Structure formats: C-alpha cells, structure tokens
C-alpha cells in the first residue's frame, strides 16, 4: 500500500508518443481526443488558433464547472495536482508550437473560478449577475485583444442581468496559487498570447457550494458565444486564419454521447404517432349524427387507444443522458426535443380533458393578433362563393391514391430507397402523413384542380422531408426538431403556391382554421365555433364541421394556427 501511495505522488510523465501523436495529428488537421490522468481530457476538433484550459482544483467543491470550457472546439481539462504540472505544460507547449506554425500566433486562454470570498462572488443565492475578471499577461497580450475579450464578455447575460467585467494586468494568467503552463517570456518568444478569465461562481450555492445545473448551463451557453466572438476578432486581426463568422469557430466533431441521446430520443418519440393519436376514428359518423341533430348536438369523437403507458414512455425519454453532451447548441436542441416529446405524451394522456388545451398551447402556441387580423381580412376579402378554378369534377379516394402512388414512383426513380406507402382508410378524415406513409380517408372528395397542390403538400413536402430525414445519420432530422411544424407546414403551403394551387378557397380555409382556433381559446363551444364559421364567414356546413373538428379534437388542438397565410391586399373584386 505504501508503495502504491508513493507511486501516486510521483510526477506524471506523458506516455511515450502521446505528445508526438498529438502534434502530428494537429499538423494533419485531424481531430484529437485523449483521456488524461485524474479525469482530464484534451479535445481539439481541428486546426484552430486557440486552446482553452481549465484546471480542476484539488478536492473540487463540486463537479461540472469545467463544462464552461468543454463547449469549445479546442480545450484542455486537467487536475491542478502538482505532480501533473510538468507533463501538462509539456503537452500545452507542443500544441502551441504547432498552432503558431499554422497560424503565425495563437491564443492560450485559461479560465477558472474566483476564490470564495472574492468581491466578484455572489453574496446571496438570488444574486445571479455574472461577473468576470480578464487577466492580461505582461509581455504576452495586446490592447486590442484585451478590449475584444472584455467587449464580448460584457454581452453575457444571466436571467437578463448583464455581466460585470473588469480587467487587470498580471505577470501570469492563471489562478493565483498555480504555476502557468507557459510563462509570459516563453509565450512572447513563441508568438503566443496569454489571457486568463476569472469567473464568479454564481452557479454555486453560497451555503453548500453545490452547483445549480440550470444556472451553470445557461452561463455556459452565453459564455461560449462570448468566447467565440472574442476568438473570431483575434483570428481575423492577428492570425492567418480568417473565419467567415464566429459560429464557424464552434465544435464540429460529434462524440458518442450525441449519437446515444439522438437514438434514445428518436426511439422514445417513435413509440407513438402524436397526430394520428389525436385524429378521430369516427369523423364521418360524428358528422352524420351532427347533421341529423340539425346541427344542435355537440359531437362525440373517439380515438385510438394509446400504444403505451405514458409513465413508461416518459421513463424511456428521460433516460437519454443529455447532460453528457459537451456542445451547448446540440444540448439545447436535444433538451427542447425532450421537452416537446414530454408535453406530447402529457397531452395524449390528458386527451379529451380540459387540460389538453393548455398543453396544446405550450406545444403550438396561441393565435397572435396580427395573424388573427389577417385571417379575418382574408375571410372578408374573399367571398364564400369562390370556387376552385378550372375544376371539371371531383376525385374520390382511390383516384387520389392512384395519383399519389404515381408521384411517389416519380420520386423513387430519383432515389430508389424511398419507401412510402399509400393507404385508403376509414378511420381518418382528409389526408395525413404518418411515419412517411400517406393515409387517405375513404370519404375523401377533392376538386380535380385541387389535386396537384394537395399532392405537393402531402407527398412533395411531408413524405419527402420524412424520407430525406431518415437518410441522415442524425435521427432527429427524421423525427423533427422541436417546433418544426411551422416550418414544415410553411414549406407545404409554399409547395401549393409553386404549383399554382394556393387558391382563394384554400386561403379561406386556412383563415377559417385560424378563426376557429381563436374561438377555442376564447372558450367558445364546438357549436358556437361551427355557427360562426357557417353563419358569419359563409363556410358550407360540412366544411365548417371539419374545420371545427380539427381544432376541437383531443380536447383542443391549436396546431392549425401554424399554417402560414399570405398577405395580399385583397378586395371582393379581386380576380
């Protein structure tokens, strides 16, 4: 035991070939990711003129603060143990030499927490104003870089509180009790700029020093953008590297944790079809009964049974280790998707209850005033008697299905891997795409002139984007990122326009859906909304019923408010 203890205190010597391997891969512009002693790691995406350093204090008060640098494309995280210093300094020197060779100079930036009791540290758990102290090293810094770093940090905000930034000049740019990996004299000889940033640990509890994960995550995201802004200015002014935008200085390499989370989130969302679960299976029967009641009895809609227990679905969803993702942009995308799937599961669990409407608002939002005004304007400017142009008759479900199969065959000739089916069913209304397949109601009747636009909406957009997403290694592109419905439906309506199918009746229908959603939000009953559509805006009885059904299904679905409306200065006399 004594022997192992003394061995643990021996200075760390980098394994044979480690530094040479890092230098060689960096010269060849290959990614570097190596595990170092005591939980350390060096990660360099590619040739890029900077290296961020974080030294974890011995006996760290809490894990996670090093994430403030792991967001970057080039970083070194290591323990502050004395026995590691010489080996880590040798590794840093090797990286700096190659970066200077490639870019003429480089920026070595060390970040650390302000010691407890410093003025920059918070005095209470509610004081979340970020604070930074920029340390410019004498002889190894320049005034313009100092100013750029300070300016970038001033843009950091936390809970809408702006950062407080101060600047100091010192003989070393590292924590006061540690030795620098590169002295200012050596840095000057190597044409390397040295800077330090001392960070007030506003993400820690004053009483226990425990980390507040949410605060740390938000600070990390904001600080990462600030660092990239500063490095962008440094790169363009002082190096041969000329990035087009500060975002291009972010990470490119995708680590295993990203693929794990992507797969787990996709598997969780694949357990159910949100829109299909909210589509009534008795739409035609409900319409017939509503008509027999002389439009007086509120319809009762029935839905498919949920395919899984909501609690089990959520348990699978939250197994995804999003906290392990180092890139804050990707972490944000995954967190937003996780939140969206969680809300979808909750809404399905609360289907046909008053709670469902509130969850729908969380998912799709409400109707904005400008959109409502535009919808009302469209309904008043386009007369109810408007008809589809050049329509010779109506197509039934089998005829529409045949046209859809022909369109899919056309797309398959361009990409034989396209695997999309067309199915005529009795348990849906209208048309919808589910998992890349087109489902058509057996009661569908479509004006012949409307068919091309309808096919481009459903097949040319929804089916095709699902297939394109499925061809990508990133599975969220198939499942759809959080809030993607507005973009998806926007592209679909644009497709209608491009084939000349965004007709006046179609615009009236989209506007009527917006008005129906607003009626729902105002507390109107199904009957009241139906009457407003039919009486006030001139919709045919079946059309008014179907619009109201889309909005009131599942307890209230505001999704129809995301469909875009084109703003034209229309009047009833417009052709």
What is shown here, in short?
The chain contains 21 helices and 15 strands. By secondary structure, it is an alpha/beta fold.
Description of the molecule:
The structure is a single chain. The protein has 575 residues and is an alpha/beta fold. The longest helix is centred in the middle third of the chain and has 26 residues, at 213-238. The protein folds into three domains: 10-252, Aminopeptidase, CATH 3.40.630; 350-386 and 503-575, no CATH class; 390-499, no CATH class. Strand 7 (157-158) and strand 8 form a beta hairpin. The strands form four sheets. An eight-stranded mixed β-sheet has the order 1-2-4-3-5-10-6-9, sandwiched between helices. The protein is built from 21 helices and 15 strands. Helix content is 46%, strand content 13%. Helix 8 (256-269) packs parallel to helix 12 (328-349), helix 14 crosses helix 19 (504-521) and helix 15 (397-414) packs across helix 16.
């Amino acid at each position: 035991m004594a022997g192992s203890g003394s061995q643990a205190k021996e200075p760390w010597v980098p394994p044979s070939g480690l530094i040479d391997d890092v230098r060689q891969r960096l010269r060849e512009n290959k990614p570097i990711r190596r595990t170092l002693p005591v939980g350390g790691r060096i990660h360099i995406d590619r040739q890029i003129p900077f290296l961020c350093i974080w030294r974890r204090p011995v006996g760290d008060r809490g894990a996670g603060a090093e994430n403030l640098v792991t967001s970057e494309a080039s970083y070194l995280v290591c323990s502050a143990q004395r026995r590691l210093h010489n080996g880590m300094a040798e590794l840093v020197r090797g990286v700096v030499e190659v970066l200077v060779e490639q870019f003429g100079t480089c920026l070595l930036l060390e970040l650390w927490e302000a010691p407890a009791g410093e003025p920059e540290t918070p005095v209470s758990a509610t004081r979340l104003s970020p604070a930074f102290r920029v340390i410019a090293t004498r002889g190894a810094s320049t005034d313009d870089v100092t100013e750029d770093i300070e300016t970038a940090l001033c843009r950091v905000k936390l809970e809408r509180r702006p950062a407080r930034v101060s600047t100091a000049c010192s003989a070393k740019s590292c924590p006061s009790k540690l030795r620098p990996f590169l002295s200012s004299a050596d840095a000057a000889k190597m044409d390397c700029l040295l800077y330090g940033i001392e960070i007030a640990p506003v993400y820690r509890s004053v009483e226990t020093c425990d980390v507040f994960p949410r605060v740390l995550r938000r600070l990390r995201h904001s600080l990462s953008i600030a660092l990239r802004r500063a490095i962008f200015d440094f790169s363009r002014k002082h190096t041969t590297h000329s990035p087009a935008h500060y975002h291009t200085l972010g990470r490119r390499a995708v680590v295993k944790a990203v693929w794990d989370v992507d797969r787990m989130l996709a598997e969780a969302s694949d357990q159910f079809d949100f829109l299909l679960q909210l589509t009534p299976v008795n739409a035609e029967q409900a319409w017939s009964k509503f008509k027999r009641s002389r439009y007086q009895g509120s319809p009762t809609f029935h839905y498919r049974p949920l395919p899984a227990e909501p609690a089990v679905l959520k348990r699978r969803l939250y197994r995804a280790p999003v906290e392990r993702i180092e890139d804050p942009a990707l972490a944000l995308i995954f967190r937003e998707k996780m939140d969206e799937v969680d809300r979808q599961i909750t809404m399905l669990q609360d289907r046909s209850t008053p709670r469902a409407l509130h969850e729908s608002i969380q998912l799709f939002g409400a109707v904005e005033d400008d959109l409502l005004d535009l919808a009302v304007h469209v309904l008043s400017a386009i007369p109810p008697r408007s008809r589809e142009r050049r329509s010779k008759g109506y197509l039934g479900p089998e005829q529409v299905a045949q046209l859809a199969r022909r369109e899919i065959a056309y797309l398959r000739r361009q990409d034989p891997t396209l695997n999309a089916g067309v199915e005529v069913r009795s348990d849906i209304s209208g048309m919808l795409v589910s998992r890349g397949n087109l489902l058509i109601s057996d009661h569908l009747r479509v004006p012949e002139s409307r068919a091309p636009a309808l096919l481009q909406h459903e097949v040319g957009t929804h089916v095709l984007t699902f297939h394109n997403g499925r061809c990508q290694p990133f599975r969220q592109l198939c499942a759809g990122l959080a809030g993607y419905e507005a973009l998806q439906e926007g592209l679909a309506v644009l497709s209608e326009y491009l084939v000349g199918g965004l007709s006046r009746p179609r615009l009236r229908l989209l506007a009527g859906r917006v008005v129906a959603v607003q009626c729902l939000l105002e507390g109107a009953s199904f009957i009241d909304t139906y009457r407003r559509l039919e009486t006030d805006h001139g919709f045919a009885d079946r059309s008014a019923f179907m619009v109201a059904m889309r909005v009131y299904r599942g307890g209230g679905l505001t999704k129809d408010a995301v469909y875009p409306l084109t703003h034209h200065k229309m009047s009833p006399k417009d052709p």
